[in-house]
Amino acid sequence: MKVALFIPCYIDQFYPNVGIATLQLLEKLGCNVTFPLQQTCCGQPMANSGFASLSKGCDVNFVKNFSGFDYIVAPSGSCVLHVKEHLHDDKHPGEALQIRNAIYELTEFLTDILKVESIDASFPYKVGLHNSCHGQRGLHLSSMTERMLPEFSKPEQLLKMVKGIELSKPKRNDECCGFGGTFCVFEEAVSVKMGKDRISEHEVNEVDYITGGDTSCLMHLEGILKRQGSNTKTIHIAEILNSLL
């Protein structure tokens, strides 16, 4: 199984340990992982701001770097969804289509493709799970309260395999954290208020960490936690699944 590792901008620039944890986890589970060195942004920031047409260079480069792999895996639901819905290359439409069908967010790859039933990981802390909007409503990584369907959560399914973890969920389990890409820049006050509401529900549960599958959302929450002087920390789910504390 040839797996290409796609590491989004936020992780590459600010949270490289998330990328390292993802690589190590995939290799532990038997994947032959390649990291294309010339990869760059997928183009999501431009699309979020209404300028998807300006991301053509990102598309061409993405197709150049990720063509020919059985699977492409990324520890970011929002970037994966963007590629699935927007990747386009006029000169290589077949390759672009193949990539759109081959790209997976980390937790869905572990549950749906590798069908992981056990993970050798230990994390003896109380952890609150945050569901990011793109992963939940776009990639269907977990059920939504507005739909009358059986409850499920691929991230929660994996976290329950971790030894010592005490998992909790906020009262409003699928509420947005307020990040929303460029939304947090153009609507700063609303974004921060939404983030504070998310954090307050997790703090009621007295969690040590807040985890999730999107580093961008965790970064937004982390900033608020630090400004509030909170002892609660954020951690990407890849780091927990790869942890042997």
Automatic annotation (TrEMBL):
Source species, domain of life: Bacteria
Ranges where the Cysteine-rich domain occurs: 3-83, 127-221
InterPro entries to which the protein is assigned, alphabetical: Cys_rich_dom
Transmembrane segments: none
Protein name listed in UniProt: L-lactate dehydrogenase complex protein LldE
Lineage: Bacteria, Pseudomonadati, Bacteroidota, Flavobacteriia, Flavobacteriales
